[in-house]
From TrEMBL:
<comment type="similarity">
    <text>Belongs to the GtrA family.</text>
</comment>
<feature type="transmembrane region" description="Helical">
    <location>
        <begin position="40"/>
        <end position="63"/>
    </location>
</feature>
<keyword id="KW-0472">Membrane</keyword>
<feature type="transmembrane region" description="Helical">
    <location>
        <begin position="102"/>
        <end position="124"/>
    </location>
</feature>
<feature type="transmembrane region" description="Helical">
    <location>
        <begin position="75"/>
        <end position="96"/>
    </location>
</feature>
<feature type="transmembrane region" description="Helical">
    <location>
        <begin position="12"/>
        <end position="34"/>
    </location>
</feature>
<keyword id="KW-0812">Transmembrane</keyword>
<dbReference type="InterPro" id="IPR007267">
    <property type="entry name" value="GtrA_DPMS_TM"/>
</dbReference>
<protein>
    <submittedName>
        <fullName>GtrA family protein</fullName>
    </submittedName>
</protein>
<dbReference type="GO" id="GO:0005886">
    <property type="term" value="C:plasma membrane"/>
</dbReference>
<keyword id="KW-1133">Transmembrane helix</keyword>
<feature type="domain" description="GtrA/DPMS transmembrane">
    <location>
        <begin position="14"/>
        <end position="124"/>
    </location>
</feature>
<dbReference type="Pfam" id="PF04138">
    <property type="entry name" value="GtrA_DPMS_TM"/>
</dbReference>
<dbReference type="GO" id="GO:0000271">
    <property type="term" value="P:polysaccharide biosynthetic process"/>
</dbReference>
<dbReference type="InterPro" id="IPR051401">
    <property type="entry name" value="GtrA_CellWall_Glycosyl"/>
</dbReference>
């Protein structure tokens, strides 16, 4: 990867798109939680919006792919799988540390981001 300019550019673009979506989503979800919304509802709302934005931006900017039903379906399947894992991590964190809702959100978000990147790179956008 270090010597492949196209791959490096793609990786940097993915990270930038992901960073904007992740930070925006994390801040939005933390704000919604602070305003009294359930952590699970906040998570779902932020991810529904974030996954659409992510598909659009990563298709066009990162992977230079046209939109397709097949690719969109695979993308949303990967988002669903990652979301389930995210919720499980939040649940487990809160099970062992009931007052750690902000930490739980951050842990879930980190794993979600890493998992979605891997699935996009090696399955969805191939």
């Amino acid at each position: 990867m270090l010597f492949d300019p196209k791959l490096n550019s793609q990786f940097i673009s993915y990270c930038l798109v992901g960073a904007v979506i992740t930070v925006g989503g994390l801040l939005t979800s933390l704000l919604l939680i602070w305003l009294g919304m359930s952590i699970y509802v906040a998570n779902l709302l932020v991810y529904l919006i974030g996954c659409v934005v992510s598909y659009v931006l990563n298709s066009k900017l990162t992977f230079k792919k046209n939109y397709s039903r097949k690719r969109a379906l695979k993308f949303f399947i990967s988002i669903g799988v990652a979301y389930i894992i995210n919720v499980l991590l939040i649940y487990l964190t809160l099970f062992y540390q009931p007052g750690a809702k902000y930490i739980a959100q951050i842990i879930g978000n980190v794993f979600y981001t890493l998992l979605v990147f891997s699935m996009n790179k090696f399955w969805v956008m191939k």
